[in-house]
Amino acid sequence: MAELITGYGVEHEQQLEHIEEAVQQYLTFLVADKTYAVGILEVNEIIEVSEMTDVPMMPDFIRGVINLRGQVVPVIDLASRMRRGTTAISKRSCIVLVRIRRTDGEKQPVGMLVDSVNEIVEINQDHMQPAPNMGNGIDTRFIEAMGRVDDHFIILLAIDHILSHEQLGQIAQIADLDEAMLQNDE
User: What local confidence, expressed as pLDDT, does residue 118 receive?
Assistant: First the structure.
């Protein structure tokens, strides 16, 4: 009898694990009046917009750098990166901090400037579809999937593909500047 109960418990736990794997949590936010999301586990923290220092010779979508507890962190204007204009900073604007895998395999902290953060949503795997094929010349690598919530779709961003290899190299240069500045301070 005890074995039967134990067996049931194991089966029940496996079913619960399967259900948990089928549903994932995403942080939703607005960029140029459109809702996007990233996996909640990819978000390190959300901070208020603070003073950003402009870095010369960087692409327009790199809004600047911030000092985060002594570390230089580049801030990407997601609206600009997605060719939706530039983000007008308001009281609701936030910086979503993530870590993007650079070309050398290292993880680089990066801030994503967004209009506002909305909520955390749970999306079942059954409600996800692959990125649409937009035809030749349109890069959709930055889209992990399209998640259906109620009657609308949310673009789920693939954090490691938001930037091209060349752009990741430019981010790495900013990180190298950070190390050089820290060494000069010593």
Answer: 94
